[in-house]
Amino acid sequence: MNGPNIASIIRHYRKCQEEADEACGYRLTPLGAWASSRAPHVFAFFRKVRLERYRLFLDLGSGDGLVTCIAGLFTRAVGIEIDRDLCRTAREAARHLLLLEKVDFVCGDYLSMRIGGADCLYVYPDKPLGRIEEQLSGWGGTLLVYGPHFPLKHFPPVRHLRCARERLTVYGQFSGS
Ligand SMILES: C[S@@+](CC[C@H](N)C(=O)[O-])C[C@H]1O[C@@H](n2cnc3c(N)ncnc32)[C@H](O)[C@@H]1O
């Protein structure tokens, strides 16, 4: 049997959307709003940034686990999500896709966790990123921000990537005080 790959991940999540169970689509969660990054575009971005160079990837607000599962094709990946139902959906996806050796999910508030232990962070923001920036003061890793709506203030953008209509900004070392 083939191992997990981007095609199996896309197939799994597409089937989930077609079945339109409660966890698929868009909705409010206890700390924000859930919408999903687009899988083929995220995969293309991760290839461009050579995600396999990183030791630990964290998705801050991992929703249904799509991005964390894709990151698990490259490196060790953990998703942090406040919404219990989405966390359950994400764990089920990782189990179904045979990704549990590389991928894990934690249900909780990432602002109360030591996220600076990772060397690569990803966020598809549902609000401005000031609190994350405060928490990462002095951190030396790479932060990937999906979409153009909430740019960072204290991290310099290193690269702007585009794939069709989707955008990803790669930020480098903290430059604030
Ligand atoms: C726009 S969705 C992105 C989902 C996923 N990262 C993706 O790209 O497909 C943002 C998610 O962040 C979660 N979230 C927002 N603030 C959070 C916090 N402080 N701790 C944990 N999860 C949070 C929301 O519940 C929501 O599911």
What does this molecule look like?
This protein is of the alpha/beta class and about 180 residues long. It has five helices and nine strands; from the N terminus they run αββαβαβαββαβββ. It has helices spanning about 5-20, 40-50, 65-70, 85-95, 130-135; strands at about 25-30, 30-35, 55-60, 75-80, 105, 120-125, 140-145, 155-165, 165-170. It has a seven-stranded mixed sheet with strand order 5-4-3-6-7-9-8. It has a two-stranded antiparallel sheet with strand order 1-2. It binds S-adenosylmethionine. The site of S-adenosylmethionine has 24 residues, from strand 2, helix 3 and strand 4. The site of S-adenosylmethionine (SAM) has 24 residues, from strand 2, helix 3 and strand 4.
Short descriptors:
177 residues; alpha/beta; Rossmann fold; 5 helices; 9 strands; 28% helix; binds S-adenosylmethionine
Radius of gyration: 15 Å
Order of helices and strands: HEEHEHEHEEHEEE
Number of helices: 5
Bound molecules: S-adenosylmethionine
What's the CATH class, please?
Answer: Alpha Beta
The chain-level structural class is alpha/beta
| Shape designation | globular
Q: What is the number of domains?
A: 1
Task: Please summarize what this structure is.
This protein is α/β, with parallel strands linked by helices and 177 residues long. It has helices at residues 6-19, 39-48, 66-71, 84-96, 130-135; strands at 27-29, 32-34, 56-60, 76-81, 103-107, 120-123, 142-146, 157-163, 166-171. The chain is globular, with a radius of gyration of 15 Å.
